[in-house]
Amino acid sequence: MLRFVLTRLxxxxxxxxxxxxxxxAMIRLIPGDPVELLVGERGLDPxxxxxxxxxxxLDRPLLEQYWHYISGVFQGDLGKSIVTKQPVxxxxxxxFPATVELSVCAMLFxxxxxxxxxxxxxARRGSxxxxxxxxxxxTGYSMPIFxxxxxxxxxxxxxxxxxxxxxRISLLYFFEPVTxxxxxxxxxxxxxxxxxxxxxxxxxxxxxxxxxxxxVIARQTRSAMLEVLHEDYVRTARAKGLAPxxxxxxxxxxxxxxxxxxxxxLQVGVLFSGAVLTETIFSWPGIGKxxxxxxxxRDYPSVQGGILLIATTVIIVNLLVDLLYGLIxxxxxxxx
Amino acid sequence: xxxxxxxxxxxxxxxxxxxxxxxxxxxxxxxxxxxVGLAFVVLVLTVALFAGVIAPHExxxxxxxxxxxxxxxxxxxxxxxxxxxxxxxxxIFSRILYGARYSLVxxxxxxxxxxxxxxxxxxxxxxxxxxxxxxxxxxxxxxLSMPSLLLAVVIVAILGPGLFNAMLAIxxxxxxxxxxxxxxxAITELSKDYVVxxxxxxxxxxxxxxxxxxxxxxxxxxxxxTLSFSNAILDAAALGFLGLGxxxxxxxxxxxxxxxxxxxxxxxxxxxxPGVAILLTVLALNLFGDGLRDALDxxxxx
Lengths: 336, 302
Fold this sequence. Notes:
Mean pLDDT of chain A: 86
Largest sheet of chain A: none
Number of domains of chain B: 1
Order of helices and strands of chain B: HHHHHHHHHHHH
Helix content of chain A: over 70%
Shape of chain A: globular
Largest interface: A-B, 47 and 43 residues
Structural class of chain B: mainly alpha
Order of helices and strands of chain A: HHHHHHHHHHHHHH
Strand content of chain B: under 5%
Oligomer: heterodimer
Radius of gyration of chain B: 24 Å
Number of helices of chain B: 12
Helix content of chain B: over 70%
Structural class of chain A: mainly alpha
Shape of chain B: flat
CATH architecture of chain B: Orthogonal Bundle
Low-confidence stretches of chain A: none
CATH class of chain B: Mainly Alpha
Distance between the termini of chain A: 12 Å
CATH topology of chain B: MetI-like fold
Radius of gyration of chain A: 24 Å
Distance between the termini of chain B: 40 Å
Number of strands of chain B: 0
Largest sheet of chain B: none
Number of helices of chain A: 14
Low-confidence stretches of chain B: none
């Protein structure tokens, strides 16, 4: 197992360095003067321009600039936002919990619905239920989620008036963030109605962001179950006269879940892509909306730092999924 | 004598394997969803080609007396604007017909770009093992560590918003899968006897790559290409929606949705129809792609 962990870590380091090279290069590839891009002003006074250039080390050789950049990264210094003048790292971690909260809820929603739907569809292969689940999954997979979000707003916020249109909680409530997770904070605040308000705000974004993972998980669970149900040990279990529920729930499911877990892990990147769109539709104050707003505001230090932090998060989550996968599946662990 | 020859020919004909295309169609047409998907794709293609003839109005013509007219079956709708008009009085039906052109062109260009570069890099990586291969594959790993839409957004941030840059960005995000797929398939083929035979009889490197090995790697690449086609339409629409793809007043479906966002609670038709167009087109392409995969995948053939 140690060997397995070390190999995975070994792959991680060059990938991380590659990502830093990419974000480092990005600011230099954008047309225009990097000093002006990083300060966010145009037509700088030449004296000040030279001074800033020296200050940011942009007059040094590229290799030295990169060294300067990467040592800053390791000290948690990713520069300051042009718009708010706040350190990028601070902004990122203020907004990060909102995205995590939304993503976790979306994933729970997708897993809670997708796995049972996939199992039932496989157990009743060829039935009307199977066909409807697979049809719905293909539709979900083909869904432009930004449009899906708008449709749900029309129906549930516009026509039925059940859910709010945007934000994380009603403006009536105000309390100091403790954890940054609105569900927990609103619970802790003890204000009557705050928690319900947070839940109501969360429902539509969760459904929208969870739609594609739900479709993928349902499809994957079904096909993994169908594959396992043909195995000899399942036939043996059936021949022994075990109850169908026990065969499916215990013997088949445990082995079928292995590819499903991989797929769930792979959805983390998809979730981030989806979060960009979902947060934009629902004005959800998270990382995705922040990155897009930063691009529109030409706030390049924020874009640069944000991209690096998101990529790092995805790399770490993928590593954890890999390790978890090795833990539950010895065949992977012992592969050379 | 001639009678025998004729009978022999008949026998041969009866035993000859069916033409590959015919065999493919036999498998493909068993999948009803795939055939429906194909039919819809052909419909979209026709609409795109003849948008100028079918569309009742110019896509960017603004009718100043007809802002936010509802569709024909609602109160206040008229046959002049079947699906209603948007906030500046443009006919939504005509814009959707013209939008089909953009979506198909986006799909074609993205797939062509990423296939060309992806196959080239994949083949080179398979033929030149070692440092070059390691460099290419590591670069692909790095690209995969970024959420795809985010990578596209970064590239658009560098190049500047616009339809062409958006297509370029999306094509880049599809590279890793194609490179990996090509490389893996090519490496498997390279160890086979027919490749060795071709090498021994003196085939040069380019011939080996393109004429000997590549045709045998195509099946998974074709499937990936159809699936990329539908994804490209979705991603381009998403970039358009974020204001980073096609710019207004282009009748691109995602851009139309971005413009319609603020009317979401006042005029449902402005938001609904462009999205229906995206969903149906992508769904049809995915159905078609699934059918293609089943028909081309020898493992599933009985």
